[in-house]
């Protein structure tokens, strides 16, 4: 249910960018980024949801993957499962306890290129608990120039056990099964945009005069 890890995926977007970039700072384009999750309900169907507010940044110099870094933040109060009562329950102390833990964060620790994409390792902090997670990311989309800057995107998936983060609430059904599954599947679709480079003193002066 966390979607915070969403930002992790961002990093991979930068991993293969050419050195043509004017800046090594990239930000998550929230309008074109989604963090979705799926968890089993009553052992018969999947409940899907997402987090509407996700932000973050990636730093990559276009040369060394070892130096690439990712930082992401998710607003836990933005959880949306298309059911108002269920969303309120998820925000309560039974689950995310957003009054006490309003954000979910991810910080990368290692990015590892592979044959079919990338693996992004990092620390996910949710409900006051930090655990290492691994995201399997697809190859980067082609870098394009749009709206005055460079954009790149990718998709990534991972699976976590919610109980490892202290989200233990559950109920036993009449048949002995659980109302809520422990495993949570996460899918991240991320678009990154290059931050505008700092202007030199001369360029800034010209810009100020125009």
Principal-axis shape equals elongated
Widest beta sheet: strand line-up: 1-4-5-7-8-9-11-12
Order of helices and strands: HEEEEEEHEEEEEEH
Structural class of the helices, strands and pairings? mainly beta
Our count of helices gives 3
How many E-type strands? 12
Low-pLDDT windows of residues = 1-21
- Strand composition percent: over 45%
CA radius of gyration: 19 Å
Largest sheet: 8 strands, antiparallel, barrel
| Average residue pLDDT | 80
Question: Percent helix among the residues?
Answer: 10-25%
Through-space gap between termini: 49 Å
What does this structure look like?
- The protein is mainly beta and 210 residues long.
- 12% of the residues lie in helices and 46% in strands.
- It is built from three helices and twelve strands.
- An eight-stranded antiparallel β-barrel has the order 1-4-5-7-8-9-11-12.
- The protein is elongated.
- It starts with 5 loop residues before the first helix and ends with a helix.
- Residues 1-21 have low confidence and may be disordered.
